[in-house]
Structure formats: structure tokens, C-alpha cells
Amino acid sequence: MPSRRVAGADPARMTHEAPLMTRDAQAERAVASGRAEGVSAENFLKRGHARMEEAVDALKSGDLDRRSFLRVAAVLGLGVGAAGAFATSVLGPGDGPAKAQSAVAKAAGPKFGGALTCAMPVGSIGDPAQFEWVAQSNILRHQNEYLTITGADDITRPMLAAGWAASRDLTVWTFRLRDDVFWRSGARFTAADAQFNFARWLDPTVGSSNRALLAALSGPEAVELVDETTLRLHLSWPSLAIPESLHNYPAAIMPRDFDGDVLGALKKGRRVDGTGAYVLTELTPGERAVLRHRRLEGGMSYWGGRARHVGPGWLDEIRYVHIESAGESAAAAVLSGRVDLASEIDVDAAAGAEKAGVKAKVLSADSAQTGCMRMRLDAAPFDNPFLRKAVQLSCAPEEYPKRVFAGRGRAAEHHHVAPRHPDYYRLPRPAQNIAKARALLRSAGYRDGIDLTLEVGATSGVWEVRTATLLAEQAAAANIRISVKRVSAEEYRRNWKATPFGLTQWTHRPLGTMALALGYRSGAAWNETGYARPDFDKALAKAEALINIRARRRAMRPVQRMLQSDAVMAQPVWAPVLKLAAPRLRGLDVLPTRYHHFNAVWVAR
Asked: Over the stretch 273-287, which tens digit does the pLDDT of each residue have?
């Protein structure tokens, strides 16, 4: 396909550290090791992107901490190694990028072979662009990869992309793709493959949540195919989170002959092509899924071993066993030796495993995972703002960490932006006010109180039911009588956007702007509340465009306040991510997103 040039587009230089990006590679290695000749670390960073000077100044003034500086440098297309070296020169030694490197470097002796068996809900897999639950993507992500990869440190690095660069105003993003990636079938991965996926994500008839994250792209025509390994995105307004958005779990890269149904293809005896280390060979919803390494399936050699933050895929097989609950049953499967890993466990299971005194290890990550007890603004009685505010004011967030998570959680503020997010603005936490809640209820026309039903699917463990039950207990004092209706996890997954009052588990995102774009931007596929406020959309877009973290936080203040004051939800607590692993597993990272990155995992034998 010929290149389409856009007038005025000024592609920035590519400087991101990657095996194929040789330009400035020697200089970057020298900077990272302190051996730079003729160019200071500061000048190198400023040369890499025009907006980097702003980030350098923010680091020096204290407006950016080390991790936020590394994140900005990575997103703008600079090597994390060089950025880390410069941050150290300013701040002194600290937590640098070493913690984010592949688990291959964390312990000696990885060997090919063996299998990992994981307990996790195993459901149907249709079109990844329409994924609504992390578990679906965890099965497929080892076959169908992403343009970028975000690690446990929330820093985004290249994956199928070799690197990227942004124009000074952050409206033109140029992605250079790796030229050593092959689909299992033998075809070379090209920019046309990536363009095909962007076109599907941006197609409103597909209904992908990626469309909300990539809202600055007006449509497929904004995705320019420059050459076989270069793709250029032309945004209608600036956005800093493009690379991070491309690791959103529905952004798996599918082949150009994909017909929209992974399970359907398997039932017909066909395997969907992928660039990943593994091939999905079996999928039985409600039972199991099996992936085998492509070297065992006669596929082309896998590229991932040439990128230290990806890994070669040491395991012969990855097996998923269907266990719906994140509680005792998942933990028991690990403790009995039936599986090696419980993808998620709750606090009760974690406490039980620790008391059991066995060698299985509880792994945890601080996270922006949460449960939003959200109300549909277009469904009675929740179209009444006085009622919604009364529900919110009956809630006492400070009680939830202890009573729901045995002290592991963190109180929230009803606006879905977490203290872990670098763009979080600390607002006063609304205190419980029963008297005001009662008054608002009367203003809403419910002098004798009201009966409500809160639907919960326990899609992520018993904590969801406990959270809903605690709200019901607290709201009773305001004469708001909440009946907690527990449905099966599968039923809730089918109907989560339609239920008028429901508790939905939302996974972690690296940025608060990403969570809000997915859940509350007008018309977004995952907008489960029907929230539609143009000034909110405008304020969110403004925050998305800012590099300076202090300015970004200030810009998030009105965004968070709108959600909080409009009483879209009762969102009182941030949930920890907990897993249970057998001792034979090596190199396992726990991601706050609950994503599985198993390419660097191996088993001790």
C-alpha cells in the first residue's frame, strides 16, 4: 500500500532504546553507563524530544519524581536506560529501571521446558477488540501480542513496536515496528498488520473500548501507513498516553485474515495466527485452555528472546484450569499441587495460605483495582441526582480497607482516580453524613426512604460482595434500604453495562486519565453509567495533553470533582492484587493490572 503523506506532518526522530533502533544507540549506552563523550546526559535527553526539556526541568524542581520521569521519557520515545542515568545524576541513587527488567535477569538458570498450570476463569474468546474482562486477554496475550508492553513499574516499553516518537505538540505519533517479527505461519509482521487493527478498533460497529482511549484519532484515515515498518498517527488533539493505551488488554494485534471469533476458528479446526511465543491449541469454556510453544508446533522462530523486557518463552506449555472464584478454591488448587498459580485470590485465601505454613507464596501488588458501585444516570430512580448523592453520602470509605481487605486496601474518594496514579489530585474525601443523606432523600421525593437492589457478580472474589454488603449496612442509617443481589460471575459479565445499580470490578490502569476515558467519556463503549457531560470530556482531553505532572494533577482536579459531585458512583476503596504461586515457579512478576506476562517465567526442575 503506498504511503499517504499528510501536509504539515513533521515526524520526530526515533530514539527509543530497542535492538533494531541503531540511531543514537551507542550514545545512549554511553550515557546510561556514564561514559558519554561530547554530549551530556541532559543534552542527550533534550535532543531526543523537544518536550523533554520540560520534563528535565520538572525533575529538577521536584514536580516529577524518578518513576514519573522515567515514564514520561519512555512515552516520548527515549530509552529508559539513559533516562535512568540522568535521573540518578540529579536525584542520586534510587529505584531505577532495573526493577522493571524482565524476570530473566532476576535469577540465574532459566531453561526451556516444563509447563505452568494456572487457576483462572476460562471463558469464551471471540473478538479481542471487544474484550471486557482481563481473564480473556490473559489466555490470548501469549499468542497475540501488543505494540507496547507496560511492566509492573507502570513504565511502557516497546513490544511489536521497536520505538516511537511524538511531535512537539503531541498530535503526531510515529511508530517504527520491529522488522524481525514473524507470524507463526511464516509471514512477516508489517505496519499494514498494525493499521488493520487500528481500523477495527476505531470502527464504531466493532464496539471496542479502544475507541474511547484513542478518541483523539478521528477515524481510520488518521492512521497513516508510511512504509512497511512505519505507522504514523495523526491526532485531533494532543495526547500523552498513546503508547500506554496500546497495551490496553483489548488491543491485541490480530492477523489481517481474522474473522472476529477465536473460539469459532478453533471449532472449525483452524488456529488463529499470532506473533507470540505460544499457540492456542485448545479452548473449552468453563473447563480449560492450553497454549503450546510455537517451537513445538512447527512455527517460525520467536523474536522475544532478543528483547530483555519480553523474554523467549521458556515454558513448553501454559495451561489454564477453570476456577471461577478468586477465593479458597483457587488457593486450595495451588496448595494441593493441582496448579502452580492462582491468578487471583482474596484476602481470606491469602490469610489461610499464610497460616497453612506451606511453601506456596502469597504475591501482592499495590494497585488501582477497584469496585465501582455505579448507578445508571439514564435509569430511574438514579436519574435523580439527589438520590445518587444520598447514596454516596451514606458511605464511610475509611471503614472499607479494614472491614473488606483486613487492612490491605486503601480508602477512595468516589472519582475512580487512585493515589497510585501519577495524575491523581488529592481531593477531600467526602465524609459520611447521614443527616444530609436523609434530607437529600426527602428532596428526591422519598420521605419514607427507598428500596434499592445492588447487583454483584463476585467476578474477582468475595471482596465485591463484602463491599456491597457494607454499603447496604451504612446506607440503612439514611433509610436507604439496599438489597444485595448476588448473581453468577458469568451472568454479571453478560449484563454489567445494563444493570441500573451494580458493583463492577475495574482493573488497574497506569494513568487516571485512561480509567476515566474508558469509563466516563461520553459514548465510550465501557461507559456503564450513561454519563455524558461535554465539559467533562473537554477537561479530560486537556489533562491527557500535559507532560508536567504538577500541571496535569491540577488539570485533573475539575475532572475528578465533576465525577464526585455528580455522584455517579459510590467508590470507597482500592483493592490489592493478590496471587498464590507454587515454589517451583521462577521469574514471575505480579502486575497491578492482573495481566499475565509469562514469557520470562520458567519452572525449577
From this structure: 999 999 999 999 999
